[in-house]
Amino acid sequence: xxxxxxxxxxxxxxxxxxxxxxxxxxxxxxxxxxxxxxxxxxxxxxxxxxxxxxxxxx
Length: 58
Hints:
This protein has helices at about 35, 45-50, and strands at about 5-10, 15, 20-25, 30. By secondary structure, the protein is of the alpha+beta class. The chain has one domain (about 5-50).
């Protein structure tokens, strides 16, 4: 039996270790550390819905 700790990044589609990622600020789905380092904080679906245009809460 082999276990895997992999998830697909909802921003770029890359498969990375789940423990090395961040949640989307809109819905909480997985975003890989590479996307996060590039400044991506929303998954594709949330960005398409316009959540990325909303200003952060004060």
